[in-house]
Design a protein that fits this description.
binds 4'-deoxy-4'-aminopyridoxal-5'-phosphate, alpha/beta, 369 residues, seven-stranded mixed β-sheet
């Protein structure tokens, strides 16, 4: 007799499903929309509106041949070597990842055991929470103040195995100075992860701190400033002992051959990236001024996005209206962010279009940039 089909929903409800209990119960990370089909002005996932360096495209094309028959360098050594020269560190200080998200996952799997405490600013990049939940760690949220600043006295928790500090933070885009980060690293017993996904749009990097503090890990991504979100390339910088340990946790060949050469070529053409960053920073400042004229409160963003707030008004309606008009921004349906939307800095043309539509929606005069 054929066995009765499994009623998955019932099984899951009874915790008799196939998954670990915490996986069954968790929501899972929800990335920003990547719409297929309609051609949106996409200001929702902090991608760079400008193309990557032509040198990157040439390097990818040159690598697209018979060599893909062979595995890549397990540690992405040619990319580590190039990164060491670029950032003035040793190759042993660098670990490459399949995007910064891969490195975040490696970090959490390396340092967090069931029940271990992990400190997160609140609000922040929501993937941190998801990764800690998968690992059955305990999240300790440190609430940011009204202006999304870190309450410094409360941030350092002696029992934290791991503390996440995105700098600039998301979704506010605001930064804290590197000397304050050094102070946190000194005081903390556990690991401090400084997520510098957006630091190329800011003023200073904490990478030099890895020589002084054996408990600090700096993360970088090529997805934003280098216009390579689709290639999935990230770097971690830390004391060689931390890098060696984390290398045991990573997938055996976590970067493919094309990503390795793309990363090297991107670092070989820093001026291309810097030019794009300059344009984005200029547009960012113009966008902030326009949003202020529209009556939004904004924050001093040092990244490629701007958080805009209309106190006591739910921004879902504005987000949905913009979407109908072909413009995607990011709306977070959480109590602290319901009156906000996060706008990725696009080209001047894209931002002008966004402001035009926004002015129609708000029924206000166009502020223009
Ligand atoms: N950290 C932060 C704060 C981010 O916003 C993002 C992008 N969503 C990442 C890390 C991940 O970047 P990547 O594309 O390299 O995985």
């Amino acid at each position: 007799m054929k066995p009765a089909p499994i009623d998955i929903e019932k099984e899951v409800k009874n915790h008799l499903g196939y998954f670990r209990k915490n996986i069954e119960q968790m929501k899972g990370y929800c990335p920003g929309e990547q719409p297929q089909g309609r051609d949106y002005i996409k200001l929702n996932t902090n991608e760079n509106p400008y193309p990557p360096s032509p040198k990157v495209l040439q390097a990818i094309q040159a690598e697209t041949g018979a060599s893909i028959r062979l595995y890549p360098s397990p540690m992405s050594d040619p990319l580590r070597a190039k990164a060491a020269i670029t950032y003035g560190v040793k190759q042993e200080n660098v670990l490459a990842g399949n995007g910064a998200d891969d490195l975040l996952s490696i970090v959490v799997r390396s340092f967090v055991d069931k029940g271990d405490f992990v400190v997160l600013p609140d609000p922040t990049y929501t993937l941190y929470d998801t990764l800690v939940t998968i690992q059955e760690g305990e999240v300790l949220n440190v609430s940011l103040n009204e202006d999304f600043e870190i309450p410094e006295n409360e941030f350092v928790k002696s029992k934290a195995r791991l503390t996440f500090l995105p700098n600039p933070n998301a979704p506010s885009g605001i930064c804290i100075p590197v000397n304050k980060i050094a102070g946190f690293a000194k005081e903390l017993n556990g690991i401090l992860v400084v997520d510098e996904a957006y630091t190329d749009f800011a003023k200073e990097s904490a990478i030099p701190l890895i020589d002084t503090y054996p408990n600090i890990i700096i993360l970088r991504t090529f997805s934003k400033s280098f216009s390579l979100a689709g290639m999935r390339i990230g770097l971690a910088f830390a004391d060689p002992k931390l890098i060696e340990g984390m290398a045991k946790v990573k997938d055996s060949y976590n970067l493919n051959r094309l990503s390795i050469v793309a990363g090297i070529a991107a670092l070989d053409d820093m001026s291309w990236m810097e030019e794009n960053v300059k344009k984005i920073k200029k547009t960012r400042n113009d966008l902030i001024s326009s949003l202020n004229r529209y009556g939004f409160k904004t924050y001093s963003s040092q990244s490629n996005f701007v958080l805009a707030r209309i106190p006591n008004r739910n921004c879902r309606e504005i987000y949905e209206e913009l979407k109908k008009r072909g413009i995607l921004v990011r709306y977070f349906d959480t109590p602290r962010l319901q009156d906000c939307m996060r706008i990725t800095v696009g080209t001047d043309h894209e931002i002008t279009r966004f402001l035009e539509e926004l002015s129609h929606i708000l029924g206000k005069q166009m502020a223009g940039i």
